[in-house]
Amino acid sequence: MSELAKAYEPQEVEKKWYAAWQEAGCFRADESSEKEAYAIVIPPPNVTGILHLGHVLNNSIQDILARRARQQGKEVLWLPGTDHAGIATQAKVERELRESEGKTRRDLGRDEFLKRVWDFKNTHGDIIIKQLKRLGCSCDWSRERFTMDPEYTKWVSQVFVDLFNEGLIYRGKRMVNWCPVSLTALSDEEVIMKPSKSKLFTMKYELSDSPGEFIEISTTRPETLMGDVAVAVHPKHPKYSKWIGKMVKRPFPEALIPIIGDDAVDLEFGTGALKITPAHDKVDFEIGLKHGLEIIDVLHPDGNMNTPDLPEFDGMDRFVARRAAVAKLEEMGLLIGVEEYENSVGYSERADVPIEPRISMQWFLRYPEIGKSTEAVANGDITFRPARWAKTYAHWMENLQDWCISRQLWWGHQIPVWYRKDKLNDLKNAESLETKDAEAGDIYVGVEPPTEGDWERDEDVMDTWFSSWLWPFATMSDVGENSQTLKKFYPTADLVTGPDIIFFWVARMIMAGYRFEDQLPFKNVYFTSIIRDLKGRKMSKSLGNSPDPIDLMDKFGADGLRFGLMRIAPVGADVRFDESSVEEGRNFANKLYNACRFRQMDGNEFAPLPAVKGLPVYHIQVMAKLDKLQADLEGIYGEYRFGEIAQRLYEFLWNDFCDKWLEAVKADLRESATAEARAAALGTFDAVMSRYLQLLHPYMPHVTEELSERMDYVSKGEFVMSKVLPDTPLLAELSPGEIEAADKQATAIYETAGRLRNLKAEYNVGSRKDVRFIFKGAAAWLSGEINVLALLAGAAEILTDDAYEAPKGTPAAVTPVGEAYLPMEGLIDVEAEKIRISKEIEKMQIEVKKAEGKLGNASFVDRAPPEVVEQEKQRLEDWKTKLAQLGEMLDALK
RNA sequence: GCGCGCUUAGCUCAGUGGUAGAGCACAUCCUUCACACGGAUGGGGUCGCAGGUUCGAACCCUGCAGCGCGCACCA
Known about the structure:
By secondary structure, the protein is α/β, with parallel strands linked by helices.
């Protein structure tokens, strides 16, 4: 028997087993296996990333699914990797460069800068991988991928080339979301609308041919006034429509601009007149196009003013310029009013500054396979859990806009397009570039650079998600089209991810899967909860409300963290995280460990289970409960209700196994117990515990592996993680009737013990073990269970005596197995007992009344299902019996 | 404006038609030889509000309120 410390210490154990699993190759997927395939691809964390609780939840679920699939005898591939995360990574390296050397990326030049980013990736990129290992993730690390691996990059380029040739990718001058900090275009998804307290300024422009007459205009952005090229009014505007076609004076720089009519203008809003700045507003841009208006860009890419004609504004920050413009308008007497105004302003997701609508030359993708992809989710070929996300998905798919895929960054996959040097200027300013331009030989689009001629490559890189959307198959197919991995494991089974990237990633992967592999990439998508703090706020670094999972693992163990988090994560709702749940996870591991420690007092050699027929009812009951647990879990796994699984596992061990069975069985492990009783107890323990450890393993892999070894449940060199879960119930040989009979008896004993303890507590002898109980009218079978009952109730002796005449005032209780008395010197108190019993009778009478009322209601008896009525009758009968017994007791006191 | 979700014990949450639950917190007792990261006992809820359906509603329907999220608009 190995000495076990009193409390479970996970740190060393977890490290040891993770190393052992890796050493033994337990995580490796065999692409030539005959077994049924099960695959998950990890949502690749950013290389710059550090593990947070969202990762913990997400990867715990994936690990549970992977480990569960292995237990079902499947060949499992959990494919890990990281994402190059263009903007985030580049920004991080640029910041370090600025802080340590005071340089910008342009100081270094593209090649040198990229070298720095690679250095960063090579030194920091595996931090999060190490952290995932610490958590116990059973990924096949031999297949770890990075979105900028050479083979992966080739895939990305190939996809670009194919889609370009198909006419789905084109370059064009468009209004895009521009981040003035990151200095790049962003996709619509990377813009976050934030409600903001703004000011709505109302100003007036004077009509050129009727001095003294003004048109009033409201705006939130007076600083773009220099870019105004028109004033638009609704054609039905009561006051202004008659002025359509007239010119007004733009105050600075002074110019005459026309009043135009357009029904895009909202009559109700502001004054009903709208200043048109095509360069800096999406709606204005479209109106400008329609009316053939000039585009005047008054901002630099970094968001500072670009107004050489107005030196007082030139180079000014856009928000400073706003105040300056207002001041100037006021000075000129053109400002009419300022009001507080709530509107939504688009912010750059990464840089967290207001984005600037800006016209620029960008590459766009017309999404492929929209119809099929929409249909796949609608008809259930792909299941979303919770299902309501399917609606969100459908809505987005219906309103798809072309995807801006080019980014003005250096870190990423460079656009595989080359321009003929002699036509460079024309090409760079061309309104659009498409397939025909490649056919004409002006541009070259290919995976490999052109071999002859003088070309210059497009400087832009692609949106990170343009590589991520290929993740499910690009990670599997890097040994060519005939990759066995791809054949064996694609499409994958489950995708586990956050609902916040349903558009960024999930929807796009579905389209890519159909387009490039002609198959959906996964069958189920499980959207995890978003983790918030106790105040309901999102976890974030800036709020400092995000606990470090590594600290939590140091404190409570990886298993404790996993279990604690899983147990509180609801399906489809946010989870409010509190450290106490992780503490509970740790406590649970400790409880499990100590249950096994108790067993080891009787040695740690596996004890075979004797024939189940004729075993004590407690043993049969606990095995029946385990069988039911296993069967139930099967169904709950099918519904992906992970929190409920954890809860069921928790309740079985703590309540059924430890609190009840383990206490009852102590009677059979005493020195005085027979060898037969001991063997039955130990055999039951091992049968139940070995199976239970398997059931728990996906949630708490380390402690279950440790205990399986220590308890002799696996043979040398074998791992519980690789062991197939048997599907035969422990009690396969017993009939349901036999099981039910045992269950009833065991339950009666446990309930009776509870009543006796309750009685002791009420008389303040809860902790005394020297008490004696006497039963009157006890069931015949009780005599065989007296020892166990005494043990559970904490009594020195329990007697049955139908002729017993209790002294008046003796504490007494009605139990499922008869009337119980607690005769003890000093406890006898007639008045107290009268009050206590009367209270109980009162409670009981209410119940009886309720039941009688129900059964007296003809509609209930006629219309409710017969079993419900039967149940109600049974209940009433029980209560009446009890009431009668209590009545007798009360009478005896009088 | 459209859509989705939530509202159950002090806190965090289970519970989808048939006697209101768990964990934590709280109170009392117990350091009894698996576990104080523990055991025992107990207090605590008109299940957001108002209607409706039903023999019966926390659960189904309608409306309302509060909170949260997404989308669109936002001069």
